[in-house]
Amino acid sequence: MSEPLSKIPGGMRYYFGAEARVRRSVEDTAMAVFGGWSYEEITTPTVDYYALFERGMGRREAHRAFRFTDTDGLMLALRPDVTSSVARAAATLFAERQRPLRLCYAASVFRQQSQSHAQWRREQAQTGCELIGADTDVADMEVLVIACEVLRRLGLEGKYSITLNNVEIFNGIAEHLSLDSDMRDELRQLMDTRNAADLERFLIPYTSREERRAFAKLTQLSGKRQTLDKALPVITNPRSRSALERLERLWSVIESLELSDDFEIDLGDVSGLDYYTGLTFKIYVSGAGGSCGGGGRYDRLTSNFGKAEPAIGFVLDLDALTDVLMLRESDLISATDVVEQAPLLTNDDRTALFLEALDKREAGERVLINSSEVRL
Amino acid sequence: MKLTIAIARGRLQAQTLELLAHAGVRVSDEAIKSRRLAIEDEEGRYRLIFVKPVDVPVYVEHGIADCGVVGRDVLMESGADLLQPLTLDIGCCRIAVAAMKRSLFSDCGMLRVATKYPRIAASHFGARGVPVEIIELSGSVELAPVLGLADCIVDLVETGRTLRENGLHIIEVIAESTARLVVNRASYQLKARALGQLIGALNNNDGGRA
Question: Contact, A152 vs A165, CB < 8 A?
């Protein structure tokens, strides 16, 4: 017991004052928007079997969970994500419910320090929603529109960009080139870091110089419809092709809703390949050094729990959004920042003091009782 | 939208500024000679910050700098989550294992490795299944095998002269290292146009290949 009691474990922190209020308000805003789109709130267990997360998130990610053992020796974990548990509920508890299911949540997740240095927090507050049982373009668009509404209501209109991709484009390419799992991983990493020079070198055995160059360019810069137009002649295998076409249909809806300023096609975003099965997206907000959220389609997940069905969802990083809003001095802060002190109620007569306070509370006023100088 | 570029002080600084000047990011000699650690280019489009090489990935990963120029050695060691859209032809060198003996692996139950790059060393020997004790030093690493502190070193080799003069041989090259342009993930999306311009300009130099 050499550590002083004043010490706080790495990656953990307090929230108070304006920041705590902004944080609460971001969460309330998001949950209200989810509710407005008919998503029902669900609270999942804070502690659950490790096996659940291992199945749900994949071994690599689940590994980051804080683990301990139950009285019967089974391994437990502090939940490192919410979606795994939601998927289990969908396949079991809600098996008989009408589809699609719309569920939303606001909860902390706990993960051992990640590989990213900028991401030091070990408790992260996540607010998210899941749409389970629908594999349509409409379902894809629904969650994107919901994300836009949350960001708009947070006063971030014009300050954010949502990047779109479809993991099947990568999967199609890897399959077409018959890559083994190590090579697949290398290709993924070269694309993910936008390392065009090494990507071209990697592709030398597979394609012509022009095709290599065109492909490297494609994965390097994000863009609007023209990115898809440029991709079609370069990426021709049927699996990738059908994913590109699905992305193109989605983009047409985005254009027709005049939302194309808020979105980018980013064929180089190949994170989350082990988890997602179709559309993926990431939310970037000006002022934040990393992404403020993201999501995608995960049609395989619920099959782990005995009922295979399509699903899509996303999560917002409450802490990242709060940081951005604190920097911005947005309307959200000015509304919550100044909490004026209520007039101090003082009375030697305890009964009268509390009657006055209760009356004011009944009228909806804020009260502050002088509890230090009153002689009780 | 102004871009902030983190520049590694020291070995790479002069060459980095030269590459940037070719790409249209010009700073006055006066500004460079001053002791200010943050200066603007002549057109006011860029802010340049000068930091220690190991700090470049830190500034860029946190998004304080949108991009930076740093050696691959530093990047591998930092393990930072960054984009690397461009390899630059400056600061070419090798990250190598060197020792007094010509061969290391014949009879070692455990290898003592002195290095400034503990992560690179650990992952290199880890992949080969060689048990190692990493001895982290911050300079004059070549001295460690000579004086018996370590069996070998993992270090940056430019010309190899320091190694030779201390009686060390390169046993194997872990990686070739040149400078890279690294970019913050969020900036890459949110300042796409400005960064695209800079990447394009650097790429059209003789100095860059992508």
Answer: no
